[in-house]
Specification:
The complex is a heterodimer. In chain A, about 75% of the residues lie in helices and about 0% in strands. Chain A is mainly alpha-helical. Chain A folds into three domains: about 1-85, NADH-ubiquinone/plastoquinone oxidoreductase chain 6, subunit NuoJ (Four Helix Bundle (Hemerythrin (Met), subunit A), Up-down Bundle), CATH 1.20.120; about 85-115; about 125-165. Chain A is extended. The longest helix of chain B has about 35 residues, at about 1-40. By secondary structure, chain B is mainly α. The interface of A and B includes residues 28, 32, 128 and 169 of A.
């Protein structure tokens, strides 16, 4: 019974949070609701007994949304409302409804047709974390490694893009050094 | 069975909440006294014997002060932010075993709310969410100093999370489990992990200072630069909630360090339990000691330290641990 109560509670909370995320015009509300929704989703993992994935969901998304907050801070005055350009509401409503129905169909089809079989049944005596590790390093080894390489590429690319003039620090430079550097840059712009 | 379990859990939660809310108050008293003695002052002396009732006086002040919500703020987020800090601190406590299990009136008590098998990951994740409190409070305050503090909060968060995660990976590889009780039991036979993993111990300890926002890394509310940072616009109990969260976090991270690296409560005897509390007290004292002895670092210095010094050390530590274990 507790499981059912918890499921419906968190289902309601998650949907409410994501609803706020897409409907509000206040950047801070949207980001906070997004973070809350992501954290509420982890409750479903805990209810299903997948503790490891639940905790990972919290760790990963709390960090990811934190980066979004940083962008929000840079681009908006987050205490004011954002004026959005409203397109044709019918098209927005229609497209999102179609997308939602399609998603439900995609996930419901295997359940309806009884096509789900557990290829990798639970190993006796192995904990939650070990189970994830076993599948990750046997069946899904190649996708796992490819994902790792892609992340490495993204990291190196990020460092290369952002790393120009990394050796210079404005805090450590003398006042006239900074002025000199500014003059040099201005000269380039004028030329 | 299920009802009994439910009642037991609720009682445990209430006891932990009450004890640690009170301890957060008493923690401020100790902080003032310790700082005062280190700086050759007296600290609180007037209210009650040795100034002990200062805690109660502060509590009365916080509870009865007018709750001001300034006009330019984002109302709901502003009101909600302190709750995040306090609530997540106590949520993290759910997976910490505070004492070895003992028998009370013929009933065996396990002083841990939920013995989930991924304890450490859960605690670190929830403590990470705790930083949303200062972030949201700072961003919703419509105050430039508060906004600066929020920006620093985000930077600190991204820097120290990496160190905590990587430094703790090597001990996890040795123990082969994420449960704090397994960590404790592993150290009964194999000695304290602190001696096997000194590098990881120091790294985690440094990251704990960033995690709780204590002095060498007290950038998000640095009084002499940005007033009180995210707390500038807060008053009364809302500010008090930030405070309770910070102190509760200090206690909980002390428990976690003692459990992971210093053998925890050992075999569960009375001596082990007392030793465990002594270790926790030492780590709490160390937080205060550092505050008296060290200046704050700049935000860019913290990021430089985390990304360019500590992270490579942590990665090398993991690789060496892996090689040795193979």
């Amino acid at each position: 019974m507790f499981e059912a109560i918890a499921f419906y509670l968190f289902a309601f909370l998650t949907i409410a949070m994501f609803y706020i995320t897409v409907t509000t015009s206040q950047a801070l509300y949207a980001l906070t609701a997004l973070a809350a929704g992501m954290i509420f989703i982890s409750a479903f993992f805990f209810i299903l007994g997948a503790d490891f994935l639940g905790a990972v969901q919290i760790v990963v998304y709390s960090g990811a949304v934190m980066a979004l907050y940083a962008f929000g801070m840079m681009f908006f005055d987050t205490t004011r409302e954002v004026k959005e350009k409203q397109g044709n509401k019918l098209i927005i409503f229609g497209l999102s409804s179609v997308a939602a129905v399609l998603l439900v169909v995609i996930f419901a089809t295997p359940i309806v047709s009884d096509n789900i079989t557990a290829l990798y049944p639970m190993t006796e005596g192995a904990g939650n974390t070990q189970e994830v590790g076993m599948v990750l390093f046997t069946k899904y080894l190649v996708p796992f490694e490819i994902a790792a390489v892609m992340l490495l590429v993204a990291m190196i690319a990020g460092i290369v893009l952002a790393g120009k003039k990394m050796d210079q620090s404005l805090t450590l430079m003398e006042e006239d050094e900074i002025r000199h550097m500014r003059d040099e840059q201005n000269k380039k712009v004028l030329l | 069975m299920e009802t009994a379990y439910l009642i037991e859990t609720v009682i445990k939660i209430v006891v932990i909440l009450l004890i640690f809310s009170a301890l957060a108050g008493i923690g401020t008293y100790f902080e003032r006294k310790v700082l005062a003695f280190m700086q050759r002052r007296l600290g609180p002396t007037n209210v009650g014997p040795f100034g002990l009732l200062q805690v109660a006086a502060d509590g009365i002040k916080l509870f009865t002060k007018e709750d001001i919500v300034p006009s330019g703020v984002v109302g709901r987020i502003f009101k909600f932010a302190p709750v995040i800090t306090a609530a997540t601190a106590f949520m993290a406590a759910a997976a910490i075993p505070f004492l070895p299990s003992f028998t009370l009136f013929g009933y065996e008590v396990h002083p841990i709310v939920a013995d989930i098998n991924i304890g450490i990951l859960y605690i670190l994740g929830i403590m990470g969410i705790g930083l949303y409190g200062p972030l949201l409070g700072g961003m919703a305050s419509a105050n430039k100093f508060a906004l600066l503090s929020a920006a620093r909060g985000a930077a600190v968060f991204i820097s120290y999370e990496v160190i905590t995660g990587l430094s703790i990976l090597a001990p996890i590889m040795m123990v082969g489990s994420l449960s704090l009780i397994d960590f404790n039991n592993y150290q009964i036979d194999n000695g304290w992990i602190m001696f096997a993993q000194p590098v990881a111990f120091v790294l985690f300890w440094i990251a704990a200072f960033a995690e709780t926002g204590r002095t060498p890394f007290h950038l998000i509310a640095n009084d002499h630069e940005i007033i009180d940072g995210f707390g500038t616009e807060y008053s009364g109990m809302r500010w008090g909630l930030f405070f309770i969260g910070e102190y509760a976090n200090m206690f909980f991270i002390s428990f976690v360090i003692s459990l992971i690296f210093l053998g925890g409560y050992g075999d569960g005897s009375l001596l082990g339990a007392l030793g465990f509390l002594a270790k926790v007290a030492f780590f709490f004292f160390f937080f205060l000691w550092t505050r008296a002895a060290w200046p704050d670092v700049r935000p860019d210095q913290l990021m430089w330290l985390c990304w360019k010094v500590l992270m490579p050390i942590a990665v090398i530590n993991i690789i060496i641990t892996g090689i040795v274990m193979m």
